[in-house]
Specification:
GO molecular function, one term (chain B): branched-chain amino acid transmembrane transporter activity
Number of domains of chain A: 1
Strand order of the largest sheet of chain A: 1-2
CATH topology of chain A: ABC transporter involved in vitamin B12 uptake, BtuC
Largest sheet of chain B: 2 strands, antiparallel
Distance between the termini of chain A: 41 Å
Radius of gyration of chain A: 19 Å
Number of helices of chain B: 12
Number of strands of chain A: 2
Order of helices and strands of chain B: HHHHHEEEHHHHEHHH
InterPro entries (chain B): ABC_transp_permease, LivM-like
Helix content of chain A: over 70%
CATH architecture of chain A: Orthogonal Bundle
CATH class of chain A: Mainly Alpha
Strand order of the largest sheet of chain B: 1-4
Distance between the termini of chain B: 46 Å
Subcellular location (chain B): Cell membrane
Largest interface: A-B, 45 and 43 residues
Structural class of chain A: mainly alpha
Strand content of chain A: under 5%
Main location (chain B): membrane
Strand content of chain B: under 5%
Radius of gyration of chain B: 19 Å
Oligomer: heterodimer
Largest sheet of chain A: 2 strands, antiparallel
Number of strands of chain B: 4
Membrane topology (chain B): Multi-pass membrane protein
Chain lengths: 290, 291
């Protein structure tokens, strides 16, 4: 039983990680909470639903959904955040606009597709038995997708030019500007990467449990918590934070019931705020100073 | 006519909520997303005290305010040490936690079934029962709260809060304990929200957790932001604006199934446009989020 719990925790942690890496890339470079990220996630799932219902082949639908989600993410940056950035607006203004965009997109989706839960027309397939642990096929896919993406993003951040520039943007964006880096272009790239991760997480979740217009909020909150727990600027930390949340959620579901899940996630965050703010893997700066 | 009374009572309840939230959002410049939680705590505490401890409306309301103030003291103590964005996230977290408790602690709150049959308030043997009577009743309480808020906004206490909003370092250098001022503002704000909660509970006579969700918090925050922060008239303008829009939509004759979503879309668009072109709201005097 305990093995099954750990396995479930790992699967949950993988999904939260994918979402959190994307959110972390955006948050660490732009320094504001991109709440509309939760809406980008929902958009990806519904795009896949719409494309599949037009009888497009499965693989093409997924690729198209990912591309269109990335376009949506870049559009949000272009239409909403860029003007604020040019006005040098304060963090509060970003937060409010982002909240507005979130509410707007969610309700447009609800108007078009309705408020009820939809299932993606995809057969879950046989379950996989692994020495006492039972997983569904899609859960195995979720885990391996996470593994590939985590390795790729670690490599990307540490060994490519763009990755290093993104890291530098988190430290001192103005200095980069002096070096002739086009910051606006970099911001578009960052939003594209973030939205890519959101689309992957949304598609993997949607195939598993279906979709409704409000599906984006919990993954967003989990991702925010994971990023803060992990100390904001390191993917390793974010992944550690995500797995910590995944494990604790599953343990609580086992001991109490599934409805306490969100209470637990946020209690973890609050306790963390109370005692220390340096992240699971310690950074030199405290989180609220970044 | 009854409908007009209902609308007026709701406007009064929301006016209390918006004015109390303005103390935090407008005067200390912090985005609080947990106001519906205090509203809900007030509603639940006063309803449960009236039904199980057999108290009258006013003593149970006083206890409810006290309980909510203690909660907001704990929350304020935890969150107000944090920088702007992190405060917002932390209050967000508390909102979700308190909603989770209201929803899941079935033994006390009856969870999703809600509390039914909350008695109407009595006053010196006179029972406030019909709508016009209730309207007079809430108006009296609202006027008292507005008077309290008005004198508070003019008091030296709020002058210090304004100073913190404008230039926190300067206030620190004058030897004021900034965090203590912020916590006090937060506690007062939570306590006053509980009054609105108590009124709501005895007015509707039925409460369940879905009235006190994160969406409700966002709605109250939107009232303050759209009306304008940091002065007295802003939140009032916001309440009138936000509560009368649905009525106009009703006249246009939209089907009920899409009215809710359409309303949300309108609120969202207003928020986005205001943030971009008029960050101080319709009638406010201070741009938000300067912390």
């Amino acid at each position: 039983m305990i093995l099954q719990l750990i396995a479930n925790g790992i699967i949950t942690g993988s999904l939260i990680s994918i979402m959190a890496i994307g959110f972390g890339v955006i948050y660490s470079t732009t320094n504001f909470f991109h709440i509309a990220y939760g809406a980008v996630y929902t958009v990806a799932a519904y795009l896949l639903y719409a494309l599949l219902s037009w009888h497009l082949p499965f693989a093409i639908s997924i690729i198209l959904a990912i591309i269109l989600t990335i376009v949506a993410g870049i559009l949000i940056e272009f239409l909403v955040y860029k003007p604020l950035h040019e006005k040098r607006a304060s963090h509060g203004i970003y937060l409010i606009s982002s909240l507005g965009v979130y509410i707007l997109i969610i309700n447009i989706i609800a108007l078009i597709f309705g408020n009820e839960t939809k299932l993606l027309s995809y057969e879950i397939g046989a379950s996989v038995h692994l020495g006492g642990i039972i997983l569904t096929k899609i859960q195995v896919v979720q885990f391996f997708t996470f593994l590939i993406l985590a390795i790729l993003s670690l490599f990307f951040m540490h060994y490519t030019r763009i990755g290093k520039t993104i890291q530098a943007m988190g430290c001192n964006a103005r200095l980069l500007e002096f070096r002739g880096v086009n910051l606006q272009k970099m911001r578009f790239i960052v939003f594209a990467i973030g939205s890519f991760f959101a689309s992957i997480a949304a598609i993997l979740t949607g195939l598993d449990v279906g979709l409704d217009p409000y599906m984006g909020m919990m993954p967003l909150l989990n991702a925010v918590t994971a990023v803060i727990l992990g100390g904001v600027k390191r993917i390793e930390g974010t992944i550690a934070g995500a797995f910590f949340i995944g494990m604790s959620q599953n343990l609580v579901v086992w001991y109490f019931s599934g409805r306490w899940e969100s209470v637990v996630t946020f209690s973890v965050l609050i306790v963390f705020f109370l005692y220390q703010s340096g992240g699971v893997l310690k950074m030199k700066k405290r989180a609220e100073e970044l | 006519m009854n409908y007009a009374f209902h609308l007026l009572i709701m406007i009064e309840i929301y006016a209390i909520l918006a004015l109390s939230l303005n103390l935090v959002v407008g005067y200390t410049g912090l985005l609080s997303l947990s106001h519906a939680a205090f509203y809900g705590l007030g509603a639940y505490a006063s309803a449960l005290l009236m039904m199980h401890a057999g108290l009258n409306f006013f003593p149970s309301l006083a206890f409810a305010v006290f309980i909510t103030a203690i909660f907001s003291l704990c929350i304020g103590y935890t969150s107000l040490k944090l920088r702007g964005d992190y405060f917002a996230i932390s209050s967000f977290a508390f909102q979700v936690i308190i909603f989770g408790i209201l929803y899941n602690w079935v033994g006390l709150t009856r969870g999703p079934y809600g509390i039914v049959g909350i008695p109407r308030p009595g006053l010196f043997g006179f029972k406030v029962d019909t709508l016009p009577e209730f309207f007079v009743f809430t108006t009296n309480i609202t006027v008292l709260v507005i008077y309290f808020k008005y004198s508070l906004y003019k008091s030296p206490f709020c002058t210090v809060l304004k100073a913190i909003r404008e230039e926190e370092q300067a206030v620190v250098s004058m030897g004021k304990n900034v965090v203590r001022f912020k916590i006090l503002a937060f506690v007062i704000s939570g306590g006053v929200a509980a009054i609105a909660g108590g009124l709501y509970a005895v007015y509707i006579t039925y409460i369940d957790p879905t009235s006190f969700t994160l969406d409700e918090s966002i709605f109250i925050l939107a009232i303050v932001l759209i009306g304008g922060t940091g002065n007295f008239k802003g939140p009032i303008v916001g309440v009138l604006f936000m509560l009368l829009i649905p009525e106009f939509l009703r006249f246009v004759g939209l089907p009920d199934s899409i009215a809710h979503n359409l309303r949300q879309i309108i609120y969202a668009l207003i928020l986005i446009l205001l943030a971009r072109f008029r960050p101080w709201g319709i009638a406010g005097d201070k741009e938000l989020g300067s912390v």
